UniProtKB/TrEMBL annotation:
InterPro entries: AAA+_ATPase (IPR003593), AAA_lid_NorR (IPR058031), CheY-like_superfamily (IPR011006), Homeodomain-like_sf (IPR009057), HTH_Fis (IPR002197), P-loop_NTPase (IPR027417), PEP-CTERM_resp_reg (IPR014264), Sig_transdc_resp-reg_receiver (IPR001789). The keyword Protease does not apply. Residues 146-375 form the Sigma-54 factor interaction domain. Residues 6-123 form the Response regulatory domain. This is PEP-CTERM-box response regulator transcription factor. GO terms for molecular function: ATP binding; sequence-specific DNA binding. Keywords: Activator, ATP-binding, DNA-binding, Nucleotide-binding, Phosphoprotein, Transcription, Transcription regulation, Two-component regulatory system. The gene is prsR. The modification 4-aspartylphosphate is found at residue 53. It comes from Sphingomonas oligophenolica. The keyword ATP-binding applies.
Length: 449
């Protein structure tokens, strides 16, 4: 196999396959003509970038097989950049494909140069993201200060990166403590508004009577106690992003005012007489079942559609394979440092208990438990007992055998290192390999002894 990066071309037209194979000599072009062949190629080559014709057999004139292929590829390897071909008059399917997680689209008939640019940009972004995840896995924060390495969270972050530059409203749906505010901040940082302010307001934490003036501001004398004119959060976020946390808690009367702002892009401060034009992007979040609220009439559907041009679901921590252990190590390091504790890591039984726990309170629960455990720990490591957890087990379907081996290798190496207090000779004895072999593995997996 060559050292060139693999570009997977999913295309059922043999002549086009040949043309694309010829066009890109910077890549090793692998072709597949069906969904099954495409999935086999993803498993075998793990291509960073894929071009996908939506019209595949048995539905060469439709898009159903193409969309099924897209979904299967992204489920298997969410960080893959899939570039979708949009045939004549098929802009709608291209847009739909982007909403399903495709990276970009190109129009048929193929313009080799234009497609070449999209492909090379996709490889470039893929490499940047991989570097980001590598840093995050080492404990240095990646996107928006988030720690993650799981495919589930990678998919979420990727969606947010995609929508950040488009000036659309975004609704984040996820349970409490899943990191919605961090993601909203990350979205702001990646948008063209990053030079403006990021202003956050928790609509559930402010009494109903004050929420309106918090959001819209007030003029001096608007009500008893209004001794000076105050800008509201919407105005403060002008040129930037306003994050409305717990949007489901906004009372109906205020929903009407918010809707008017979103329609007309002007506000009036309480007691004010002149409309003020404000250019603020809204990102909102809720842990509530907002669809049910709309159905029950407690949340206005017209406001919902304005706020939710794009909806992003944030996976619960229990659904992110491997992230809990990664976050736990990050929080141990952070809290041991701030508390000047002697604790340096997690014992193997603690890591196993963390992997097995369901984390109903998500990242916030994990952080609180680790903080407490760092205080409770007797020795240099946090043990399962310090965490005060029960156990049960979950497992995700692996990508391929290489991934299974890598996960197992990493797990075993981490456990051996923590059991031998980071001593390489000790860890290599526990693992039954030579020291040079262990050094090689540490380098390969970018782990630190
Ligand atoms: N992936 C992550 N990496 C590092 N820290 C995280 C991550 N996710 C969440 N946190 C931390 O967990 C805590 C909860 O996150 P955040 O406040 O963003 O959650 P939330 O979903 O907005 O919660 P709520 O809905 O209860 O307001 C914060 O201290 C945040 O810094």
């Amino acid at each position: 196999m060559s050292d060139k990066p693999v570009l997977l071309v999913v295309e059922d037209d043999a002549a086009l396959q040949r043309q694309l194979r010829w066009a890109y000599d910077g890549y090793e072009v692998v072709c597949a003509g069906t969904r099954a062949a495409a999935i086999d190629a993803v498993r075998a080559h793990e291509p960073a970038v894929v071009t996908l014709d939506l019209g595949l057999p048995p539905d060469p004139d439709g898009t159903s097989e193409g969309f099924a292929t897209l979904a299967e590829m992204l489920a298997l390897k969410p960080d893959t950049k899939v570039i979708v071909a949009s045939g004549h008059g098929a802009r709608d399917s291209a847009r739909h494909a982007i909403a399903q997680g495709a990276w970009d689209f190109y129009a048929k008939p193929i313009d080799i140069d234009a497609l070449g640019l999209i492909v090379s940009r996709a490889f470039h972004v893929h490499a940047l993201e991989a570097e980001n995840r590598r840093l995050a896995a080492r404990g240095d924060a990646g996107f928006g200060g988030l720690i993650y390495a799981s495919p589930e969270m990678t998919r979420t972050v990727r969606t947010i990166e995609r929508v950040a530059p488009a000036d659309v409203s975004v609704m984040l749906l996820g349970a409490s403590g899943t990191g919605k505010e961090l993601l909203a901040r990350g979205l702001h940082d990646m948008s063209s508004r990053s030079g403006g302010a990021f202003v956050a307001i928790n609509c559930a934490a402010i009494p109903e009577t004050l929420l309106e003036s918090e959001l819209f501001g007030h003029e001096k004398g608007a009500f008893t106690g209004a001794v000076r004119t105050v800008e509201g959060k919407i105005e403060q976020a002008s040129g930037g992003t306003l994050f409305l946390d717990e949007i489901g808690d906004v009372p109906l009367a205020l929903q009407v005012k918010l809707l008017r702002f979103l329609q007309e892009r002007v506000i009036e401060r309480l007691g004010g007489r002149k409309p003020i034009a404000v250019d603020t992007r809204i990102v909102c979040a809720t842990h509530q079942d907002i669809d049910a609220m709309v159905a029950a009439g407690s949340f206005r559907d017209d406001l919902y559609y304005r706020l939710a041009e794009i909806v992003v679901r944030i996976p619960a921590l229990g659904e992110r394979s491997g992230d809990a252990g990664l976050l736990a190590r990050h929080f141990v390091t952070r809290h041991a440092a701030t508390m000047k504790s002697a604790v340096t890591g997690l014992a193997p039984d603690a890591l196993a208990a963390i992997d097995a726990w369901g984390w109903p309170g998500n990242v916030r629960e994990l952080e609180n438990r680790i903080k407490r455990a760092v205080i409770m720990a007797d020795g240099k490591t946090v043990t399962a007992a310090d965490l005060d957890l029960d156990d049960s087990l979950t497992d995700a379907l692996p990508l391929n055998l290489r991934t299974v081996r890598e996960i197992a290798d990493r797990k075993a190496i981490r456990h051996a290192l923590s059991r031998s207090d980071g001593n390489i000779a000790g860890a290599s004895r526990l693992l039954g390999v030579s020291r040079p072999t262990l050094y090689d593995l540490l380098k390969t997996y970018d782990l630190h002894g």
